[in-house]
Amino acid sequence: MIPNLKNYLSLSKKEWNGLVVLVSLIILTMAAPSVYSLFHKDKIINFSEFDKAAALLKYNKAGVTSSAGNLGDTVHLFKFNPNKLSVQKWLQLGLSERQAGMITHYLEKGGHFYKKADLKKIYSISEADYTRLAPYIELPDAEEAIPVIELNHADSASLTRLKGIGPGFAMRIIRYRDKIGGFHSKQQLKEVFGIDEEHYLLVEKQVKVNASLLKKLNINKATFDDLRRYPYLTYKQVNAILQYRNEHGDYENLADMEDVAILDKATLQKLKPYLVFK
C-alpha cells in the first residue's frame, strides 16, 4: 500500500521543473501590480486646460461660438487693424492657427481689408467669428482711394498695377479680352487661365467694366471662325448653329437658337451679351 502511494505521489525531474516554473509565474503575476505601482506614479489630473476653455466661453457673447481650435490660449479681445496683425495676435483674438495662417497668406499675396465685411471673404472665417470680432475692427485707412481700372480699355501696363497681376497675367487678360470681344462682367476674369477665386478677390474692387465697349457679332452673318473664338462653344455646337441657320433661315432672336438641339440655356446666356440678330 505505502509503496504504491509513494509511486503515485512521486514526481519526475521534468514534472518537478514544470511545477517550479508554474509556481514562479503565479508569484510574479501576483507581485506585478505592486512592482508597477512602485515605479509608476499615477498622473495627477490637471484642470488648468478645462479652466482656460471655460475662460474662452466668457467671450462668446449672446450664444456666439468661436470656431477657434486652440482653446488652450485665453481669448483677449481688443481693437485691431486686420491689415497689420501678426499671427500671434489673431490667436489671442480666438482664431485657430489655420485661420490666422490663411489671413496672413491672403495679405502676403497682396490682399487688403478695405471694410469690416471683407474679413468674411476669408474662407475659414465663419459668420460667428465675424460677429464676435466685427465690433473691434478698426480700419483707419478705409477711406483711401482705390485705383479702379476699366478692363475693356486698359493696356498691359495699367493691368500690372492691380494686386497680384504681373506682366504674364496682364497679357493673358488682354488676349482673352480680344478673343471674346471684351468683358461684360468683371466676374469673367475668372475665365482667364490661372486666375482663380483667390486672385479675383484681390482685384475685385480695383476693376470695373464698361459693357458698351463690347464687340458684338451678327449671328446671321457669322462664319465658323467667328463663332469658334468663343470658349463657350464646342466645334459640334458651332457646326449645329450654322447648319440650323442654313436649313431654317436667319435667327430672329435668342429664343430661336434654343431650337438648336445641342445648345443649352446656360451656354446661350454666356453668348447673349455678344450677339446681335440684325
Automatic annotation (TrEMBL):
Pfam families xrefs: HHH_3 (PF12836)
A GO CC term assigned to this protein in UniProt: type II protein secretion system complex
Protein name according to UniProt: Helix-hairpin-helix domain-containing protein
Key words of the record: Membrane, Transmembrane, Transmembrane helix
Stored InterPro entries: Endo/Exo/Phosphatase_dom_1 (IPR051675), RuvA_2-like (IPR010994)
GO BP, sorted A to Z: protein secretion by the type II secretion system
Superkingdom of origin: Bacteria
Transmembrane segments: 20-39
